[in-house]
Design goal:
It contains six helices and no strands. It has 164 residues and is mainly α. The chain has a single domain, classed as Ferritin.
Length: 164
C-alpha cells in the first residue's frame, strides 16, 4: 500500500470508521427495555423504527461532509480541527445514549444534549467557509438533534423527577 494511496483514502477511511463506530456504539447503548417502554411519550414522538434509518442517513451525510471538507480544507490546521470536531461530536453522541438509555437519566442526557447540539453546530460553522456543501450536509444532523432535544425535554417533563 503506497503512502499516496493512503493519503488519498485517509478521509474516507476516517469517515467510514467514525460512522460505523458511532452506529455500533449507539446500538449497544440503546436499550429499549421495560424502563423505556414505560416512559410517557408525547403524541408527536416518531415511531421507534424511524430512529435507525434517520441516524443512518445522518451518519452518511456527516461522513460525506467530512470527506468533502477534508479535501477542501485550506490547511493542515483546518484538517486537524475538523478531525477533533468529529471525534468530540462522536463522544457527545455516545455519552447521550449512555445517559439516556443505560443510566435511565433523560434529565442528565438533556443537559449533555446541549454539548451534542453545539458540536454539530461547530462542524457546520467550521466548514462553511471552505466547504459550504459540507455545512449543508450537516444541517439535517442539527435539525434531528434539535428534535431529539425537544423530545428529550418533553420526556423529562412528562416523567421526571428521576431517581438519584
Amino acid at each position: 500500500m503506497s503512502s499516496e494511496w493512503l493519503e488519498h483514502y485517509k478521509p474516507i477511511i476516517f469517515a467510514i470508521t467514525w460512522g460505523i463506530v458511532l452506529a455500533l456504539a449507539g446500538a449497544w447503548a440503546t436499550e429499549l427495555g421495560e424502563w423505556y417502554k414505560n416512559l410517557q411519550q408525547p403524541s408527536w414522538k416518531p415511531p421507534d423504527w424511524v430512529f435507525g434509518p434517520m441516524w443512518t442517513t445522518i451518519f452518511i451525510c456527516a461522513g460525506i461532509a467530512f470527506v468533502m471538507a477534508y479535501n477542501r480544507a485550506p490547511s493542515q490546521e483546518a484538517i486537524r480541527m475538523l478531525v477533533i470536531l468529529f471525534i468530540v461530536n462522536g463522544l457527545f453522541n455516545f455519552v447521550w445514549s449512555i445517559l439516556y438509555f443505560r443510566m435511565h437519566r433523560p434529565d442528565w442526557a438533556l443537559i449533555e444534549a446541549v454539548g451534542l447540539w453545539l458540536s454539530v453546530l461547530a462542524i457546520l460553522l467550521a466548514t462553511r467557509s471552505y466547504s459550504p456543501i459540507s455545512s449543508w450536509l450537516m444541517a439535517p444532523y442539527l435539525v434531528w438533534v434539535s428534535i431529539a432535544m425537544a423530545l428529550n425535554w418533553t420526556t423529562v417533563k412528562l416523567n421526571g423527577p428521576f431517581p438519584q
